[in-house]
Structure formats: structure tokens, C-alpha cells
Recover the amino acids of this structure.
């Protein structure tokens, strides 16, 4: 039973999402969204965002996108600020990458065993502008087991426009030499580790869409359901007691044969109340229009003056979105390799059976993680 409790703790930690860490200078934050740590350095000329794979471990080669978002109220001001941001340098463990390159490739030393490391932002003269504490798994990841080329990569089954999706499988941790296209549209590759590649789901046609992943000379193809969620309010700013209507439109539901769950989250409870938002909405196949859409409304009431933020996500129950058996086998194999403790066949069967028996409760727990844009797998 102790092993079961340890595994439960590991699962809970791995599923957490949307956590924030403030840098020592107070000008940087780290947010974990969809298998990616997004480090945001806020500076007077604008924001520099660095995308790092959330499973980064000691000894890994990792790579990812560096984005500069200039401040300014006019095109001329933004252009000037962008030039300044492009002169900055991002530094990890002595490895420097100019922001102008838009992409980094770093090696995480095996000596990084504290569970985190300092990611630095410097100006063109080497002066330290800001730093953030980046989470790093201090235990090197085990070498991937031998797999056939057909099973080498696991493509996502579904994705939501504007959110992250993840391709899992052994690679070199580099985004160079790799492409992902969804419905013929090339996506932005956000971050890669030796075990996964995160990309942003593009705004393309919704429904069942072809997805193609190329890694050097290998090609993997499949389909994924692309979903889109649009939120509109009859009033974007409310004062205390004022009411408005929230309309949520889901598209991409063409041809579903099983119910889907729509989850809404009020991120501004001190500013606005939303009726019946705490429980997920079940979308039955018979409720979907011929256009593949589903629409629901909710009443909103202002608590105090100010802007508010409400987000929504839609999908199958979390454990139906990936191969649970395969994920459990991989997790147990990785745990054994890291801890150097063998799990007997009986113990493995007991762990897997307990996960499957707790499916309903796990789905509810992971649904909350999904609402916060967590990597549920």
C-alpha cells in the first residue's frame, strides 16, 4: 500500500497545472500550461516568453520557442521596442541564446539536482535584467525502451484551437528537423524534450482533421478532432448587481458518438458571479446541430466594477483522450528505472486495477486539471 500511496502522490504532482513562481527581481513568472513551462520576463520595452518542456530532467537536451512581445501604443514605438528586445539574451546554465534567434537549444547538466535552476535574461551588455526559477526533474529520465517505428510516437487524439497538444515518443529533444501540420496548416512547435513535443493547435477547420508529424526522414500520420470554444458576453464590464448573458459556442462536434464535457471556469469570482458554472455540462450527440455546434448560455451578475475572465474547455472525459493502459505501463517502467526498485507482476496488476476502478474519481480530478490547461496524461 505504501507503493500505491507513493504513485498517487507522483500522479497528483505530475497533473498539476497553471502554477506561478515569482522571480527574485519580481519581474518574471513561470506558468505551466499544456506540458509547457512558459517563462515570462516583463521589461519596460515588452515581454520575452521562453517555452520549456514541463518534463525537462537532468541530462536532457531540450529546445523551444522564444517570443518577444513589444510594448507601445504606436507601430513606431512597438518597432523600436522590438529592436531592443531582440538585443536581449536568455541564459541557462551558461548557455546563451539571443532573443532574436526565436529558438533555443540547451543541455541540462546532470549536476542540476536541486529540482530547479535559474533562467536569466540579460541585456546586450551582459547586465542581468531578470531571472526566474525553472522547475527541473533532478532525476535523469530513463532511456526509452526499444519500440517499433509504427509505435514510436503517440499522436494526440483531439485538440482545442489556441491550446497546446502533445506528441509523445523518444526523440533527440530538438525541434529542428521536425514539423507538425494540422489540416495542412503548419503549427508552431513550442517545446521539445527527449520524450515529448508540444505544439499549438492552429485555427483550422474543426472536426476530424488529418494530422501529420515528420521527424527527419520519418513520417507519422493520423487524425485528431479539432474543437473550438467561443465565449461572448452581452456586456464586457459590469458593476455591482448588474446582469449580463454569457454565451458559449462549441464547434467541431460533427459526428460525435459519445457525450462530451464542457467545463467553464470563472477566474474573476471577486468581480462577477456566473450561475451554474461549477458543474460540467454534458453534450449529448443528439444536442449537436448539423453544423457540428452546441450553444449554451449562463446568467452573470456583477459583484463589483472591473473586467472579468471566464474560460472554457471541451473534450471527451480525460481518461478517454489517451491510451490509459499504455500511459500506465510507461509510468511504471519509468518509476522502476528511476528508483531502481522492481515492481512485481502482482503489484503492477494491483496498481493498474486500482487506477481503472477509480476511473470516475480520476476523471473528475483530471477534468479540473484540464480546465486549468493542465497536461492530463
Amino acid at each position: 500500500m505504501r507503493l500505491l500511496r507513493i504513485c498517487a502522490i507522483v500522479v497528483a504532482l505530475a497533473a498539476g497545472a497553471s502554477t506561478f513562481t515569482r522571480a527574485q527581481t519580481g519581474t518574471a513568472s513561470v506558468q505551466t500550461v499544456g506540458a509547457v513551462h512558459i517563462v515570462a520576463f516583463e521589461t519596460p520595452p515588452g515581454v520575452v516568453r521562453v517555452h520549456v518542456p514541463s518534463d525537462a530532467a537532468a541530462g536532457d537536451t531540450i529546445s523551444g520557442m522564444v517570443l518577444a512581445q513589444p510594448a507601445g501604443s504606436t507601430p513606431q514605438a512597438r518597432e523600436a521596442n522590438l529592436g531592443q528586445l531582440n538585443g536581449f539574451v536568455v541564459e541557462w546554465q551558461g548557455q546563451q541564446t539571443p532573443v532574436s534567434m526565436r529558438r533555443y537549444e540547451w543541455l541540462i547538466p546532470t549536476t542540476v539536482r536541486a529540482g530547479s535552476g535559474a533562467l536569466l535574461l540579460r541585456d546586450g551588455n551582459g547586465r542581468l535584467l531578470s531571472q526566474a526559477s525553472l522547475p527541473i526533474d533532478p532525476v535523469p529520465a530513463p532511456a526509452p525502451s526499444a519500440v517499433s517505428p509504427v509505435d514510436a510516437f503517440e499522436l494526440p487524439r483531439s485538440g482545442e484551437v489556441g491550446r497546446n497538444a502533445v506528441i509523445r515518443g523518444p526523440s533527440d529533444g530538438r525541434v529542428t528537423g521536425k514539423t507538425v501540420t494540422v489540416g495542412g496548416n503548419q503549427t508552431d512547435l513550442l517545446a521539445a524534450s527527449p520524450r515529448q513535443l508540444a505544439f499549438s493547435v492552429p485555427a483550422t477547420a474543426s472536426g476530424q482533421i488529418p494530422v501529420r508529424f515528420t521527424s527527419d526522414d520519418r513520417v507519422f500520420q493520423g487524425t485528431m478532432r479539432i474543437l473550438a470554444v467561443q465565449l461572448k458576453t452581452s456586456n464586457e464590464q459590469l458593476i455591482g448587481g448588474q446582469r449580463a448573458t454569457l454565451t458559449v459556442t462549441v464547434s467541431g462536434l460533427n459526428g460525435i458518438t459519445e457525450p462530451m464535457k464542457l467545463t467553464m471556469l470563472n477566474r474573476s469570482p471577486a468581480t462577477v458571479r456566473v450561475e451554474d458554472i461549477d458543474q460540467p455540462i454534458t453534450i449529448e450527440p443528439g444536442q449537436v446541430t448539423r453544423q457540428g455546434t452546441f450553444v449554451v448560455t449562463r446568467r452573470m451578475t456583477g459583484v463589483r466594477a472591473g473586467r472579468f475572465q471566464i474560460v472554457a474547455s471541451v473534450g471527451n472525459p480525460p481518461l478517454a483522450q489517451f491510451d490509459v493502459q499504455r500511459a500506465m505501463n510507461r509510468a511504471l517502467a519509468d518509476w522502476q528505472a528511476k528508483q531502481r526498485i522492481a515492481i512485481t507482476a502482482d503489484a503492477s496488476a494491483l496498481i493498474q486495477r486500482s487506477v481503472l476502478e477509480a476511473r470516475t474519481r480520476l476523471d473528475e480530478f483530471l477534468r479540473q486539471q484540464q480546465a486549468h490547461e493542465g497536461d492530463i496524461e
User: Anything to note?
Assistant: Residues 1-26 have pLDDT under 50 and may be disordered. The CA atoms of residues 77 and 280 lie 44 Å apart.
